[in-house]
Amino acid sequence: MSTAKKQSTPTIMSKEHSASKTEFEYNWRVLIVEDEPEIAEGIKAIIAPVQNVVPISRSSRQKSAPSVENTTESNDIRKDCFEVVWAKNPTEALHHVKTAVENGKPFAMGFFDVLLGSEIDGIELVKQIHVIDPKIFAVFVTAYQDRTVDAINQFLGPDKSDRWDYINKPFTEGSILQKARNSVSVWNLKEEKKIQDDQLAEAANLLLQGERSNTVAAVGRSVAHEFGNLLMRMTGHAELALMKGDVAQMHKALTTILTAGGTAAAVLDKFKKQLTNTEQRTDFKPVNINECLNEAVDLMGHEFKKHNIKVTRVKFQQCTVNANHHSLVQVFINLFINARHAMNSSGQIDISVAQTNDGSESWVDIRIRDYGPGIPEALLPKVMDTFFTTKGTQGTGLGLAICKEIIESEHLGEFSITNHPSKGLEVLIKLPQNQGA
After folding, report:
1. Sign of CA dihedral 71, 73, 74, 78
2. Would you state the torsion angle of the CA atoms of residues 300, 305, 310, 316, taken in this order, to the nearest 10 degrees?
3. How far is CA 267 from the centre of its chain?
4. Last residue of a domain, one of 175, 202, 229
5. Average pLDDT estimate for 307-334
6. Which of 68-82, 91-105, 409-423 shows the lowest per-residue confidence on average (mean pLDDT)?
7. Residue ranges in 53-134 assigned as alpha helix (H)
8. Neighbouring residues of 11: CB distance < 8 A, sequence distance ≥ 6
């Protein structure tokens, strides 16, 4: 075996750890399967010369010796680093291929004499070798046209059509050298592409894991935010029931607490579905918008009384849409909490429900207006961004983002916020009446 010095190799990312770097060893290993030593030594001298190129001796099977081109390229200039192994027969060839694969140093390509003077020819040998190492690139060397290209392709299989080539005798030094270079380059390019594909797949997987982690964290924050709102309502009504000491009032407060508990359970169930199946849609059924608003007002009742907030129903048409009841209550509670925070100790909230028609579709418009200071115009485009808040440490920046998500993504509606011309902030929610039909 003739072994040339190793060439400096490119650095690639390791499959085991994408953050660490290892050396990708360019594979120069070549197998020569030839039963005539002169031919084998001649090929080896061409692709891995020790000194000057050695002419190939006359073969006993050939009518004339193959011609060898003279070359002016010196060994110092050549950049090839082929490592050559010679096998005299199919048995040796199969042993070398199996050992190379087991040692993790497979052959990139091989030159296979078609007529080996044995029980099988070079083409049959390559078919057996491909069972052991399906990646090896084969170049058939023959002085005879015993099999056509189509016959070889059919014998080896269409899936191996990019793993073999052939060269006719008499051959030249340039043709042998070029076949070796091309075959080795193809093998290494395929391997590098596979490694890059694996790295991209791993990077994509890590990215998905990161996105999932971010989703879980965001859902966790959302759950904490929504449960905080609902638990505040439950606690307020429980305190109110204890303070009153009236059985009827206690019964009413407990009913409200149970309602809030049902909403909390629905909120949790929705977030769980989002984690396990992002394409699963919230269950819709006919919902009376007015009942959703009344429930939200009832849940906020203690908070409104405590901070002297008056709720006025300016326009309250009875409207029904296909929607998720708990999701809408969740939206209204968030909006009422924001309104209460904007007005501090006292104020008013106006609620309006009306059916509209734009000519092609019927909508239910819900307007919720507070009488607070409003929001600076420069900040209005940002208030629905996740984690953006004007409340400082008292806010999470999730309330309006959740509302927008529920209305626009779940219910295919519209959600907008504007400063009222007179005073305060107004939220407009438009829900299509044929939603879910």
Report:
1. negative
2. 40
3. 28
4. 202
5. 89
6. 68-82
7. 90-102, 122-132
8. 21, 22, 23, 24
- Distance between first and last Cα of the chain: 77
Tokens of 318: 């009875």
For the cut 80, the answer to whether the pLDDT of residue 150 exceeds it is: no
Q: Are residues 315 and 416 in the same domain?
A: yes
Tokens of 57: 């001796």
> CA-to-CA distance for 74 and 258, rounded, in angstroms?
91
Residue 171 included in any domain:
yes
Q: Is 432 helix (H, G, I), strand (E, B) or coil?
A: strand
- 197 and 308 housed in the same domain: no
Could you tell me if 103 and 50 are in contact, meaning their C-beta atoms sit under 8 angstroms apart?
A: no
CA-to-CA distance for 430 and 361, rounded, in angstroms? 11
**Which residues make beta-bridge pairs with 229?**
none
User: Is the Cα dihedral 220, 225, 230, 236 positive or negative?
Assistant: positive
CA–CA gap between residue 426 and residue 339 (Å, rounded): 10
On whether both 288 and 196 belong to a single domain, the answer is no
Burial class (CB in 10 A: 0-12, 13-18, 19+), 341: middle
Q: Position 376: which residue type?
A: P
The answer to whether the pTM exceeds 0.90 is no
Q: Hey, how many other C-beta atoms are within 10 angstroms of the C-beta on 137?
A: 24
| 22 pLDDT higher than 60 | no
Domain assignment present for 245:
no
Q: What is the pLDDT of residue 117?
A: 75
Show the tokens assigned to 276: 């396990």
Domain boundary among 180, 202, 224: 202
Same domain, 25 and 164: yes
Residue 293: is its pLDDT beyond 80?
yes
Strand order in the sheet with 29-33: 2-3, 83-87, 29-33, 109-113, 137-142, 164-168
**Which range, 205-209, 211-215, 227-231, has the best average confidence (pLDDT)?**
205-209
Task: Report the residue count for the chain.
Answer: 437
Residue 363 in 3-state DSSP? strand
Q: Nearest to residue 337, comparing CAs of 391, 378, 377?
A: 391
Query: What whole-number distance in Å separates Cα of residue 270 and Cα of residue 75?
Result: 72
For residue 166, give its domain range. Answer: 2-202
Q: How far is 135 from 107, CA to CA, in rounded Å?
A: 9
User: Within a domain: residue 266?
Assistant: no
The rounded distance, in Å, linking the Cα atoms of 386 and 221 is: 11
Give domain status of residue 353, yes or no. yes
